[in-house]
Amino acid sequence: MLNLARRYLQFLLLVLLAAGQAQAATAAAPTIPPGGPKGSLVIIGGALRGENAAVWKRIVELAGGPGARIAVFGSASASPDVAGKNNIEVLNSYGADAFFVPVAVKLEGSDYRIAANDQAIADAVRHADGAYFVGGNQARITEALRKKDGSSTRVLDALWAMYRNGGVIAGTSAGAAIMSETMFYDASSVLSTLKRGVADGMELSPGLGFVGKDVFVDQHLLVRGRFGRMLPAMLAKGYKTGLGIDENTSMIIHGNRDVEVLGYKGALLIDLSGATFTPGDFNVSNARLSYLDNGDRFNLQNGVFTPSPEKLANKLDPAKPYYRGPLFFADILGNTTVVDLMHRLIDSDQADAIGLTLGSPRDLQPELGFEFRFSRTKESIGYVSAISDMNSVFNIRLDVLPILIRQPLYQYK
User: Fold this and answer.
1) Which residues form the signal peptide (predicted)?
2) pLDDT higher than 90, residue 20
């Protein structure tokens, strides 16, 4: 109780400071029309390390630089006060002036329903320069920030106001999942999702939608092969564009809808604008996949790819392939396997590459597996860095077909 009282007194001091700053600026501040202008999003795929200075510094920079007031939401965590404190310390080490927002389902000694509609808390968030959502369970974030009827709480309205006024909203893992209007909620394995599909209230639930109505977001993407589960979710909800971000890596979405990749690995762009789907077992044709590495950009409005400066002059020549011979991958949902396949295919003498996924013979539907066929087209382009082992691959065709796995799959010699 003593810690809770101390934390509440600290928060009141922050609110008074924010209110004073807001009062001085009110006369000059225009009314923000619904829908815009907008600030920036920093969508992080999870497992963000404290020493990943490029991402942390960019969050602070987008919030205004040294001294930026960043509201930290520990809402997704099972220990929101501890997670909030830890992330505040990291943000402050990179120059921010971060503060804890006491709105969380698991926060002891507090009723999140009351806190989420507290005017003083909402005012502090509204007049911040940015917000940061820690990882955990994304369902706790939406439960804390939405009323039971699905409408917005005052704190959620304040977040939107801050964002529309040019602020930055960042989030890692669960904090990334909430960025789109639809998020994964209680999904099973990727293969199970391909076999059994998705449904609202089961595998899917509403997110907070900061990225807009037209883009689906997923996280922990490459290390967990989650591009495979994005496909049925996007088809079920009518999304044409999906962005999946890997761990310790971020996608920065600027106000002009430019997506910039920054961090350790990269992101997958899934384009279903020309795809077709056959009813029955999961089956999709003519999906398009692109891999964006550190420094690459893609504009969501005009569809233009821009490789990082160190790759721009090193476009791969299809007439001079490095890899030769058939390309086959037995576990396409393995850790970064899809990127390894795309890198090899774009610099290969082969027109296509095959990846499989199948389950245990003791699993449900052990006879059902899937073939992922990746193909180069005339729009497929690859770039390689002149100074490091980084690649970019744009516009690879993907077809997914259900296959029959005969049992037993193998016999002992």
Assistant:
1) 1-24
2) no
Is the torsion defined by CA of 202, 176, 136, 1 positive or negative?
negative
The predicted-structure confidence for 240-269, as pLDDT tens digits, reads as follows 999 999 999 999 999 999 999 999 999 999
For residue 312, CA distances in Å to 289, 307, 343, 384, 391 come to 20, 6, 16, 8, 11
Residue 54 is which amino acid?
Answer: A
Question: Tokens for 385?
Answer: 């860095």
Please give the radius of gyration of the chain, using alpha carbons only, rounded to the nearest integer: 23
Upstream peptide bond of 37 is cis (omega within 30 degrees of 0) = yes
Instruction: Say if CB 218 and CB 230 are below 8 A apart.
Output: yes
Cα separation of the two ends of the chain: 67
Question: Token digits for 393?
Answer: 């691959």
Q: Which residue has the tokens 């396949």?
A: 341
Residue 175: HSE in the Cβ half-sphere, 13 Å Cα cutoff? 30
pLDDT at 37: 55
Rounded to an integer, what distance in angstroms lies between the CA atom of residue 141 and that of residue 136? Answer: 9
Strands (E), 52-156: 69-73, 97-101, 130-133
CA angle 148, 151, 157 (to 5 degrees): 125
pLDDT at 38: 83
The closest of 38, 40, 41, 43 to 268, measured between CA atoms, is 43
Say how far apart CA 96 and CA 72 lie, in whole Å. 11
- What's the CA gap between 288 and 272, in Å, rounded? 7
C-alpha dihedral, 16 to 168 to 35 to 21, nearest 10°: 20
Closest CA to 148 of 105, 193, 94, 89: 105
**From CA 116, how far away is CA 148, in angstroms rounded?**
12
* Residue showing tokens 């604008």: 273
Q: Show the tokens assigned to 47.
A: 């497992």
Say how many C-beta atoms besides its own lie within 10 A of residue 9's C-beta: 10
SS3 354: strand
Q: What is the pTM of this model?
A: 0.91
pLDDT digits (tens, 9 = 90+) for 271-315: 999 999 999 999 999 999 999 999 999 999 999 999 999 999 999
